Fold this protein.
Amino acid sequence: MNPLRSFASDNNAGVHPKVLQAITAANRGHVVGYGSDVYTEAAVSKFKQHFGSDVEVFIVFNGTAANCLSLKALTEPYHAVICGEAAHIYTDECGAPEKFTGCKLIPIPISDGKLTVEAVRHVYHGIGDQHHVQPRVISITQATEVGTVYTPPEIRALARFAHQHNMFLHMDGARIANAAASLGLSLRQATRDLGVDVLSFGGTKNGAMGAEAVVFFEKKFARDFLYLRKQGMQLASKMRFISAQFEALLSNELWRKNAQHSNQMAKLLQKELSKIPSVKIVHNVEANGIFAQIPRTAITKLQKRYFFYVWDEEQSVVRWMCSFDTTEQDVKQFAKFVATTIRG
């Protein structure tokens, strides 16, 4: 019998009980649709408490849309977006950013999930040449696709380079809660205060259900976003049920508690796996993900009981993710099964 909880993805986890309670509480009577309701007003107010009273917030219902719409608000079709070669916008969104924005994505080889100023500078060329797309946005993922976390100086350096070159810094914050918790920072300190221009704020991986948002730190970027969101098919008619989730997540530090717990479970899993000689952790465990190289012959056997993704088939690297509801018992049972399976 397969366990109730797997380590495939934090998307596979359920919804936090307090978030479910918020949805239930919003399910009373009739309210005006499309975001003109008290629940959305309250959610936006919570975002402003965290990020600043002058931010513009737009609620959407999936991360791909949050990224695509963020980038669309910053670009014209002749622009380019610089990102890491493993970036979600490049590898896992089926070309949606390029289709929706009309922009070219320029992927840069990276070794630890992070872009650097030197790497970005290497592809910053063709400026003013009508034959070349014009770099306009640097897009980073925090926490990264391999579970590492950009430090504040690293983000500041990228923001400084972007702004010095008439570019913008976009952050794919699908796991921004995990990154901020890892760094011991507030949400604002981990984003706006470091020079980020636009944030795709992820709630789904942190205990919500289809709750994402686009946060603009300068109003001018959001000027036409109402229309972009509608045209992008992300204007929820019953928005109150998404908004209520954000009010819950952003109250009483629930976002941080969920993220800290999933991060701690990843550290525990790292500790347990380190006892197995045939398992090699290939990236620093700084958020809620573990990337491990394991014997190729063990993968299929492990997947029969615990579903998870193979990150790099050639190198036999797999990804294991922890969630807000992962328990210590889950971790120890899984690590024991990994050890037993590998030993054969």
Remarks:
- Residues 254-273 form the longest helix (20 residues).
- The chain has a mean pLDDT of 97.
- The chain has 13 helices and eleven strands.
